[in-house]
Amino acid sequence: MVENKQEELHHKLVDVTTDVARDLIEYKQTAILGSQLLRAKPGFNPMPSDLLKDLKEIWPSPLITQKFSYEEIQDKLRKAFIYRGLKDTKFEFCIFSEVGVNTAMGSNTYELKSPNFFEAFTDTVHNINTVLPLVTSNSELSGSEPFETLSIVVPDYKSVVMKQMRAMIYGVIFFTLIIITSFYVTVHTLLRQKKLSEIKNDFINNMTHEFKTPLATISLAVDAMRNEKVVHDRGKSEYFSSIIKEENKRMNKQVETILQASLIDRQELQLNLQPIHAHQVIRHVMENFGLQFQEIQANIMLELNARLDLVEADEVHFTNLISNLIDNAVKYSREKPSIRISTNNTGKNLVMRIEDNGIGMNKETQRRIFEKFYRAHTGNVHNVKGFGLGLSYVKSVVDAHHGRIKVESAVGKGTVFTLEIPLIRKEHTPVAVA
What we know:
Helix Hairpins; alpha+beta; five-stranded mixed sheet; 11 strands; Heat Shock Protein 90; four-stranded antiparallel sheet; 3 domains
């Protein structure tokens, strides 16, 4: 392509030289005394031939350099360059007059040249040039009359070619970037679709498992209650009834989790904000986990050191927020978990820290832990259940309360969740937590 452009530039330079030479030759033809007689048709010559010959000797052909100045020749060349699509192209030129075509250029007379012409003309590696005689008759070429020659040089023609190709190069780069971007977006979309498909399948599998287990338990409890021995035993009937009730609560909780995630996804999470004491909410949640803590022999440390704990929050969502974080600490704990819940005041915020000695998380998991449906790899812990919606819900509730949450963790050393919730400075009547 570059070679083609160089060839095209050379042809354009020839065209420029031809255009200017034609203009200058026309001047010479019109300037010769008796030009009309010289161009008369054969057989019609009102002036004797001897007289015409004498007139030519008295008034020889005029020289271009005697008629035009340096600036005028330069202006003609510049216009010709613009006409041929070579605007702003630098050039050097020379018009010299000698007898004979083979006369050396260095011995010219009536010379009209640009300052750097000879230097540019001799450098044929980096520059291109044209040479065209300005003749009006065969007699000039035969050497019987002096003739003039026009030579034009374009210095550093490769840079001129690259300048002409600049728009094409930019276009190629632009469209290449578009193709690369389109390819990237396509691959990214495909990978994202694949990831969403995997998330959907995992969610369906988890949901099926979470619902199948309580349904199976309820079915077994119902079958047991139909047994004649159980029907007549009030204690066993109440036992199996309590199992059915607990499993029903478990399913309702799972359904509520999915509905909450749907509301958050549609940004329809409605908060009933009212002043509540955060310490009361924490104590209430810890009481609900009491039996579970006893079963797993958990070591619980409650350090509610905050002097101010009155916050404006939605009681239901705030309770679920604390409950999800504690449940998460239990899920990813070791055989004998140690969970520490502490509070303190920092500026205008209530700071809550929930620490555990669980399996911990790597950096990649910490970056994605609040994504919807994301579940961390649990290593050798295989009893972790859920939809991967808990921490996504927690983050949405914290944001809705204009708070902040961050996670600190190390693999094998446990995890710390730190929450900051704005305090209420004015006096309010707090809502008692049941």
